[in-house]
């Protein structure tokens, strides 16, 4: 029997490695920009075409490479960062494994122009799928220019599974923002299809955060600073009143590297306990600085998951530092004794005689007797006169036919009953009779009887289902009632939100929103759906966009459902609202006319049924 085990060719091995390191165009941006930071660049420019499918170009003014280093950089596991296993635990740079460039060149066409500082000529290298096609001298600027073209051109299956341009570009923005937030000393710019998206000058950390996410964030940030022998925690947390249900800006960085850490996230959330409503998330930008030997960044190909040697002590330090920041800014309520209108508390003076202070006395009418008629004084207002005026008005109305027709209903036409409409629905057949009595329990549930038993209906979820079906119908039929706003409101989005918004505008218009682009990621809300006048329109639009981003919708129908669900949840009646009998009847009848009346669009139960058999068993 012949041997069957053999070594893979380098080109195939590199493509396999690329599957772990280079998942999408955003991965290319991350690796190339981090390499530029490691090269000591002061200015980095990123040019993107077609969300990175056609081109990802990174231009830096770093120290550059010699011709030999430029050629070696594309070999697998070629690195200048480590020479022994011990170096893995004393890392101060972003890249170190030497897999990024080898993985990139395995699945794309790469062109590199680089010139080492202090030399007269640079080098120009051209690769196509791990094959070096040419290398020649080049009169380029000091630094490096990496141009990655036609990503996954030789792996059609991988290219096919890339998401839409909006989604891929949003991922590029996310990676760019993470690098920008941790390198404020580097000037960064990003261009997409020759349009400037970011232009971030060198600045301090707080100013860098404001430059990335907008100046409105400036008043919402609280400084965090804690130093110990284990770790230094610095950065900013958001004020409690800036917390939101979705789309919160939450970032952890350790030694200049972005990371995800659910355990530390719980520490921050515990510091905000009882300061923000349940379900809302605060903003935070937390930076850890500690000995590299106490962490391991080599446990995940993308290096976003990091293992800490002293997790529990750092958890305690982080929570205490966050609480201290909230307390110093008076975010935690305190008693203020220096307010106007405070009660003057007399100060004890031993010099004064105690006789000068008299006990308070109550004046009592000793001669008052409630049982004596002379003690009772009749009110001056004559209530009988009020009744007399009412009778006169009533007779005047009865004598005027015009007023009678205006005030009384026309009894010649039958009045349609809501319960009757629901009973007539042959698809349900749930009601026992025409008029089912309804009872509201604790302003949250509606109790009514059905043929199969006793039904408990969540009024908020029922209304969500009704409104969702209405909004979906409006989107599909491309019609929706819009109410023009007397004073348009302006909403500012982050760059990531603004990138996805154009794909949502048409569907939002069909719901009833009318938005106009003002430039600089700002939009004016000129119209809103009828019936939601009492809602915060700016917060609602933000919530809809954030939900669409979180769900990562790709299919048009899924985007429509995400928008409709956001608006339905915001516009539905809230738990605790008292409903009249007519409102409850109308809600139930409309609910049972929906195609699916048992579950909300996101799968939550609307109706809980207590059958007759269950009731009988309870009373045995």
From TrEMBL:
Which molecular-function annotations from GO does this UniProt entry contain? ATP binding; ATP hydrolysis activity; ATP-dependent DNA damage sensor activity; endonuclease activity; mismatched DNA binding
Please name the InterPro entries in this protein's record. DNA_mismatch_repair_CS (IPR014762), DNA_mismatch_repair_MutL (IPR020667), DNA_mismatch_S5_2-like (IPR013507), HATPase_C_sf (IPR036890), MutL/Mlh/PMS (IPR002099), MutL/Mlh/Pms-like (IPR038973), MutL_C (IPR014790), MutL_C_dimsub (IPR042120)
The record's SUPFAM superfamilies line, in alphabetical order, gives: ATPase domain of HSP90 chaperone/DNA topoisomerase II/histidine kinase (SSF55874), DNA mismatch repair protein MutL (SSF118116), Ribosomal protein S5 domain 2-like (SSF54211)
Q: Which UniProt keywords apply?
A: DNA damage, DNA repair, Endonuclease, Hydrolase, Nuclease
Residue ranges occupied by any DNA mismatch repair protein S5 domain in the UniProt entry? 209-327
Superkingdom as given in the UniProt entry:
Bacteria
Q: Which Gene3D superfamilies match?
A: 3.30.230.10, Histidine kinase-like ATPase, C-terminal domain, MutL, C-terminal domain, dimerisation subdomain, MutL, C-terminal domain, regulatory subdomain
Annotated family: Belongs to the DNA mismatch repair MutL/HexB family.
What job does the chain carry out?
Answer: This protein is involved in the repair of mismatches in DNA. It is required for dam-dependent methyl-directed DNA mismatch repair. May act as a 'molecular matchmaker', a protein that promotes the formation of a stable complex between two or more DNA-binding proteins in an ATP-dependent manner without itself being part of a final effector complex.
Show the NCBIfam families listed in the entry: mutl (TIGR00585)
Q: What is this protein called?
A: DNA mismatch repair protein MutL
Q: What is the lineage of its organism?
A: Bacteria, Pseudomonadati, Bacteroidota, Bacteroidia, Bacteroidales
């Amino acid at each position: 029997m012949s041997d069957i085990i053999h070594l893979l060719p380098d080109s195939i091995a590199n493509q396999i490695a690329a599957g772990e390191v280079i998942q999408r165009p955003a991965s290319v941006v991350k690796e190339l920009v981090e390499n530029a930071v490691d090269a000591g660049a002061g200015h980095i420019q990123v040019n993107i075409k077609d969300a990175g499918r056609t081109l990802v170009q990174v231009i830096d003014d770093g120290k550059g490479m010699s011709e030999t280093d430029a050629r070696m950089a594309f070999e697998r596991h070629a690195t200048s960062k480590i020479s022994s296993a011990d170096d893995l635990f004393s890392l101060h740079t972003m890249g170190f494994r030497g897999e990024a460039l080898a993985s990139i060149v395995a699945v794309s066409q790469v062109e590199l122009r680089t010139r080492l500082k202090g030399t007269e000529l640079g080098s120009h290298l051209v690769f196509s799928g791990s094959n070096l096609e040419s290398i020649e001298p080049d009169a380029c600027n000091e630094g490096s220019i990496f141009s990655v073209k036609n990503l996954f051109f030789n792996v059609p299956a991988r290219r096919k599974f890339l998401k839409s341009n909006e989604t891929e570009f949003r991922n590029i923005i996310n990676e760019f923002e993470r690098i920008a937030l941790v390198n404020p000393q580097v000037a960064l710019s990003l261009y997409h299809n020759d349009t400037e998206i970011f232009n971030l000058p060198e600045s301090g950390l707080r100013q860098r955060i404001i430059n990335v996410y907008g100046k409105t964030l400036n008043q919402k940030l609280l400084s965090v600073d804690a130093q110990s022998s284990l770790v230094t925690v610095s950065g900013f947390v958001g004020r409690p009143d800036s917390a939101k249900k979705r789309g919160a800006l939450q970032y952890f960085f350790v030694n200049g590297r972005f990371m995800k850490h659910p355990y530390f996230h719980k520490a921050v959330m515990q510091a905000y306990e009882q300061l923000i409503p349940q379900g809302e998330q605060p903003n935070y930008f937390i930076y850890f600085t500690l000995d590299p030997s106490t962490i391991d960044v080599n446990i995940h190909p993308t290096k976003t998951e990091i293992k800490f040697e002293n997790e529990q002590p750092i958890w305690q330090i982080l929570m205490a530092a966050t609480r201290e920041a909230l307390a110093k800014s008076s975010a935690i309520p305190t008693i203020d004794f220096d307010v106007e209108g405070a009660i003057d508390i007399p100060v004890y003076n031993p010099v004064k005689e105690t006789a000068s202070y008299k006990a308070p006395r109550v004046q009592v009418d000793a001669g008052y007797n409630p049982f004596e008629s002379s003690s009772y004084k009749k009110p001056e207002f004559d209530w009988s006169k009020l009744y007399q005026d009412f009778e006169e008005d009533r007779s005047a109305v009865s004598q005027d036919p015009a007023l009678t027709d205006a005030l009384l209903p026309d009894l010649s036409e039958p009045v349609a009953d809501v319960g009757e409409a629901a009973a007539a629905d042959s698809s349900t057949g749930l009601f026992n009779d025409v008029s089912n009595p309804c009872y509201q329990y604790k302003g949250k549930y509606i109790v009514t009887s059905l043929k199969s038993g006793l039904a408990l209906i969540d009024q908020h979820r029922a209304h969500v289902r009704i409104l969702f079906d209405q909004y979906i119908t409006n989107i599909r039929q491309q019609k929706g009632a819009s109410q023009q706003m007397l004073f348009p409101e302006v909403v500012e989005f982050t760059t990531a939100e603004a990138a996805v918004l154009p794909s949502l505008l048409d569907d939002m218009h069909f719901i009833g929103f009318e938005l106009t682009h003002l430039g600089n990621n700002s939009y004016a809300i000129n119209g809103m759906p009828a019936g939601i006048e009492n809602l915060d329109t700016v917060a609602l639009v933000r919530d809809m966009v954030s939900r669409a981003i979180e769900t990562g919708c790709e299919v048009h129908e899924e985007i429509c459902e995400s928008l409709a669900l956001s608006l339905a949840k915001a516009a539905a009646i809230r738990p605790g609202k008292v409903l009249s009998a007519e409102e409850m009847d109308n809600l139930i009848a409309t609910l049972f006319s929906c195609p699916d009346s048992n579950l909300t669009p996101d799968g939550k139960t609307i109706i809980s049924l207590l059958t007759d058999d269950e009731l009988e068993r309870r009373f045995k």
